[in-house]
Each structure stands twice: as structure tokens, then as C-alpha cells.
User: Fold this.
Amino acid sequence: MQVKIHNIGILAHVDSGKTTLTEQLLFLTGAVRKAGSVDSGTAATDSLGIEKQRGISVRSAAASIKHKNVTVNIIDTPGHVDFAGEVERALSALDYAVVVISAVEGIRAHTENILASLEAAKLPFAVFINKIDRAGADSSSVLKELEKISSGKCLCVSVTENEGEENAAVSKTDSESFALDATCALAELCEEAEEAFLSDSVLSYQRAAELVREEISSCRLIPVLCGSAKYSVGVEELADFLVDFMPSAQRRATDGLCGIIYKIEHDKNLGKISHVRLFGGEIANRDEVEIFSPDEAVTAENDDNAAVEIEKKPPVTEKVSQIKSFSGAKFIDSGIVRSGEIAALCGLPGAKTGHFIGSLARSETAKLVNPFLRVKVTPSDGDALKLSSLAAALGELSDEEPYIDAKWENGQKEITISTTGKIQLEVIDNLLKERYGLSASFSPPTVIYKETPSSKGLARASYTMPKPCWAVVEFLFEPMPRGYGVSYHGRLPSDQCFYRYQSHIRTSFNSCLEQGLYGWEVTDFRCTLVGGEHHTIHTHPLDFFVCTPMAFMNGLSQLGSTVLEPLLKIRVTVPEELSGKVLSEIIKMGGEYDAPVIRSQTATLEAVVPVATSMDFPARLAVMSSGKAVLNQSFFGYRECRDGMEHINPRRGVNPLDRSKWILYARGAYMSD
Assistant:
């Protein structure tokens, strides 16, 4: 009999107890002899030195258990917002998620982001309300809050007893109660349950269970269970519910070989390790597999707006040298990975996070991370000869965490990386020392701004001298609302500009977006190719890679470029008497706020503030409130910069506005400083 497989992710805000829950699931199913502890550094899924020291997860980790003849592969993800990229990438490998919420602290800012991302990714999830044994636990309030912010209907499938006390317990609803609760919840989702509800009847347990499974799989029903992971209360009930009601790997099965690489790590002995979720087919040791970039997926566009596609590169073919699977929380040599399973593949040097194996698969994406801080990195002893080694190490770490985005060009005296916070920098510093024996200095973080065209108009350049060369490019730039991103349109007749050259224009245009007039990423506009031409004799295949950046920068120079600043959404809870001081701080930061909500002598304030002016706000708030304030903050978006200051990011390489130098540089006849 084929074993049913579930690939699940345990997701939560930091300190909600998700790693403890993972440990209890491992212990419950006999995968480990004793449940590890986060505080004592013995958790099986926390293997890095800094994870054991700090008592937090900073990397996703996999484990595997068997429960009721179902194989459950668990991906335990970090809860700290600095490492949300790990969560974002794990979503692509999951059949469903378990979101852990503290019954005491309730739904916090990062939890809201996780829930929104799951809905955006159209991924089913269950909720485990944890810590019901703690004083102040209130699972009913959490349930009400969950119903307010989620689009799905909630179904509570366990009952708490003695909540808020050390002897807190849960009990499963019996079949009769389950059928009644399911009928009520499903009445808003399907006609069969609605008819039963309106006629004062109850669905049979069997039929209610079938409909619950269907609605969970379609992401319209959210099952909610309660417990205490620390004391293993409700853990078995959760495990039973997951294997009985949540969707299996079959939900995402495909025909033929197809898998996604959701994590990259490096090992001294094994080299690069690619963690893969296989949707279809199988891979064995020594098999050669094709690797595809997600950028190669064809995007559908309206015919009137169609643009020539970027030329597709042939897929990279590489040989798998070793396959390791998970038994409990340990790696074992398995030699093969089959459809529905997750495994670690060795021997794929060209693999990157997000790449597909075998064939491309369409999947919904959900963004959890927006790095808005940039840091300069230099060797701590100032030895310039170590820069290349440091750049190589940070490049390898960027493979594992793409949002680090390490940038360095030979000749520069510093490397820059993106970061989401101080704890992530601590982890990078620790890994550089432990893994590579390198000591680095990090500058104070600076804000990552963006820019966008200020007005609608044409962007044009011609490159017809010195011959042999001939390329003309003309774009129409149209500013779009904040959060729009960038779209590219337009197809010229082939006799005016060969389609292969239009493909070159589009490829080059995408590269141009990295640095605008002020050196920041360019976003929130629509670009249409409205003109261009080649010469059948003089045009060289690379001419449009020279001309397109000149057209792009000419457009920004003539139309103007508006600098955009990143914003944070903050929620502050303080004693009522401090609300005036907090409002004053928000005003000083240039924030926009809603009227405070006062309840039981406690004020809750919500505001949107610029990152640049609020970087030290958490420390100021802690001092101001003597540690009594509770602050939740999350990325909100970008807006036009209002501080009146000029924000310029030093350009890497030659600026295409310096035409003569750019042409020499683009043709390989000039090296940038």
C-alpha cells in the first residue's frame, strides 16, 4: 500500500512555540526519544550555533514523522521577522501550513503577514492556539480576532478546559458535536450544509467530514485547535486532525518530473545542498536533471499589449551525486526521491533557490520580505586583499538567503548587503567567522530608497556610431500607483526591428531597473516599446545591449525621477497616560496616524512612519514607557520622499548618461573605477 504523504510548515511569530510544537510532534511519533528544548539549545531542528545560543530559529529545518500510516514531512520555519525569507521560500514546498498563535499575546504583526501570505499563495492552513496553560490565556479572543482578519470561515475542533491554569487541557469534540459545529460553519460555504442548517437538521458525521476536507483544501475553511506545546496538551489531537482532514501531497501532484528547490545550504563535505520538493516523477542517484529558472515561465498578455519574449536559454543539465532524506530530524542516505516527497540533493552547482527541476510549474507566490536597509561590509582589519574572499563568502550566503543580495565589483573597497535587521547581521557575522574564518565590520544601516519616473513621456537613444553598429530604441514611460511594480509592453514589426533584437531590448531593460537616475531600483511604472530599428548590415547582435541603457537613463533624465522612501506600519500599546507622548513621537517622525483606541486604561495607536526617522523608535519607546509598551511593526510600502533631502546611492559601474565612456565600457574597452 502506498504511504500517504503530507508536507507541512510550522509558521508563527517569534516566541509563539512553533519549534516546541515540532519537538512534541517528533516525540509523540517516536522520531526522537526525548523532546528537545529551545531554551536549553537541544531542539532537534535548531542546529546552528547561534540558534542554540539565542534560543531562536534563524533557518528553516526539515524533519519527518509517521503518524497513523501517514508520512508527515515538517518544515520548521523561523518566527523572527528578520528571517521571514525562509518562511516565504518554504511556502512553495508545502501542502498546507500550521500557524501557531499564542493564547496570551494573540495575533501579532508578523502573524498577520503570515496569514495574508498564505491566503495570497492559496495555501490551506490550520491554526494551533498555543500556551493555553499560561496566565492571561484567552483562546476565544484569538478566535474572534482570527475571524476578523481572515477571509476564510473558522471551525473550532477542540474544546479547552481550565484555560489559564497549569492543568489546562483540551478535548476533541465528539462526532455529534463535530457534525453540528461543521454544519453551522459550512452553512455559509455550501448549499448542502445551508439547507441542513435552515431546516434545523445536522449533516451526518461522514458527510460533514467530507465537506470539511473539501473546504479546507479550497482554502475557504480554517480549522482551529488549542493546546499547550510545552506540556504536550492537544498535540496528539492536532496530529490526528492533520492526517485525517488536511490535504495530502496529491493535491499538488503533476505528471512527469517536476520539483522546486526551496532551500540552498552549503556543507564542508557535501558542497552545495539543494532541498527540493518533488511534485511529480522521481530522481535517483547519478540521474541527470534539467534545472529551470522561474523567469523562464511564459506570462500571458493581451494581444494588444504583447511584447516579444526574452530569449529562452537551454536548461542547465546537472548530475545528482547523492540524495538524502529525513528520518526524524536526521539526514539519511536514501538514493531516491519520489513524487510528493522532500529531499536534499547534492551535486547541483548551478541550482538556486526558487529554481525548478525537470519542468516549470506554475505556483502562486507570496511576498513576506521587503529588505529596506543596506549595510557596507569590509574586512575588520582593513586588509583590502581579503575583500575578494569576503565577497565570495557573502555571495555563497546570498545563495542561501537571496535577500542578502551581496554586491561588489572588483576594484571597489567595500561590499554592500541588504538586511532586515540587527539579528540577521549577527547571524551573518557568526556564519562568516564559523564557516569561513573571516572577520567583518558592518557599517550602520542606511535606508534603501527606490525611484520612479516623475512624468509620462518618451525615453530614446540611438547608437549608430562608431560603426559597425546600429541600434535605435524608444520607450514610453508612464508612472503608475505605488505598489504597481513594473510592466513591459509593446511589439514592433519584425522588418522594423527583428524580434530577436526586441528580445535583447527587453532583457537589457530588466537589467536597467537595478539603478536609476539616483542609483536606486526603479519601480512603479509602465514601459512600452514604441520605436526602434536595426540595420541589416551594420547592426551587431550586442548593439541593443549598448543602446537600451542609454535610452532608459535618457528617459529618467528628461522626465525626472522621484525618490521613494520605505514606510513601516506600527501598532503601539501603552498605558493611557503615555498616549500623548507617543503621538508626539509619531508626529516628529513624519508619521500618519489614526485616533487612539482606549480600553481599560490602555491606549492602542496605529500609524505609518518612514523607516529613516523611526529606526531608533523601539529603543526610545522602551525608555519612555519603562518597558511597558508593546510595539508591533511591519513593512507597509513606499511613498514619495517628503524630507526635502537628496538621496543618492553611488552607482556601480559606468553611468550610461556618460555616453562615450559607457559605449567603451559596454564594448569591453574600458574598466570602471
Notes: The longest strand covers residues 561-575. Residues 297-302 have pLDDT under 50 and may be disordered. The two ends are 65 Å apart (CA to CA). The chain has 17 helices and 34 strands.
